[in-house]
Structure formats: structure tokens, C-alpha cells
Amino acid sequence: xxxxxxxxxxxxxxxxxxxxxxxxxxxxxxxxxxxxxxxxxxxxxxxxxxxxxxxxxxxxxxxxxxxxxxxxxxxxxxxxxxxxxxxxxxxxxxxxxxxxxxxxxxxxxxxxxxxxxxxxxxxxxxxxxxxxxxxxxxxxxxxxxxxxxxxxxxxxxxxxxxxxxxxxxxxxxxxxxxxxxxxxxxxxxxxxxxxxxxxxxxxxx
Length: 205
Description:
By secondary structure, this protein is mainly α. The protein has 2 domains: 1-59, Glutaredoxin (3-Layer(aba) Sandwich), CATH 3.40.30; 70-188, Glutathione S-transferase Yfyf (Class Pi), Chain A, domain 2, CATH 1.20.1050.10. Helices cover 51% and strands 3% of the residues. A two-stranded antiparallel sheet has the order 1-2. α4 (110-133) packs across α6. The protein is globular and about 45 Å long.
């Protein structure tokens, strides 16, 4: 969102298992955290989303029509809640958290992966339905709906969990996302000990 709005910013990365002292000093209870140049501190993804839209209006990422704005918020929330619980967290737990996080049971649970992958198929079919009927997921214009969807899917793509050949329409949408300047820097991120899938950073795959 910050890149799409052409705002200058610096990122401080943290993990749930190794939160730095500089973030702890902010005394916030959730990540992500936004510290604005005026000192305003916002934490929580939905609060940050709404703050950026209200304060920085150079690029509208929710839409002007109230119905479109509601739809964009609905899709964003769908990823943050339904997709997160059905697909994202179970996969991240097995493939990342159990490698690095402390104080959790590290016993492999492949059943969790199988269930999540099965539910991923249902979510991808719904994305196909949306992409077939709209220019972008939330409507005719690029929006937070696309940002949220691509953000979650990019992590699963990094891990090689998305069978793009089965969802060509969603793949075409994702290629457009990967080609946006705001998204390209994300494609250079990597996790130590976990290499990205072979086509993760390819704009045309």
C-alpha cells in the first residue's frame, strides 16, 4: 500500500519468534506496526489500511463507490480470517514456525498440510470466479483486495504450494500483480534455510 501510494518509507522486519527490542519498546500487542512521520503509531493490519486510506489520498486503494469499498474490505477480511485459518496458518505452522519458533510442539503433522492444501483448492476456485468476472478482484480497479490476496498467495508461492497450472485465470491475475513496481521488491525477499520455489521471482512463469 505504501509503495502504491508513492510514499517514502523504511521497513523494519521482525518475526513472531524474535521480536526486536525497538519494536517491543513501542508497547504494541499486534504486528504489523506503522509509525508515521508525524509520530502517529498504528498497529494491526486493518487499522493501518484504513489509516493510510484516510490520511494519504494520493492513490485510492478502496474505490470511490461505497459498494466497491465494502467489497474490497470484504475480500481483504476474507483473506485475513477465512483464508488465514483454513490455509495459510496451517501451512506456515508446518513449513516455517516448526523450524524456527520456540515453545511450540515441533512434531510434524502432515495431515494439517493435506487439509490446508485441499481447502486451498476451494479458495482458488473462488478467486477464479472473481477473476473471470472482474478486471481486478474488488472490481474494475486495482485495490486492497488485490494487495491482500497477492500478499498471502506470494508466501504460499514462495513455499511452492500453489499449483498455478490448475488455475490459469488466477495465474494471469497474479502475473499482473508481480509486474507492478510496488510488488517487485517483495519478490527479492527470502528466508534463511528455506529457498524460494523456482518460479517465485519470475514475472512470467
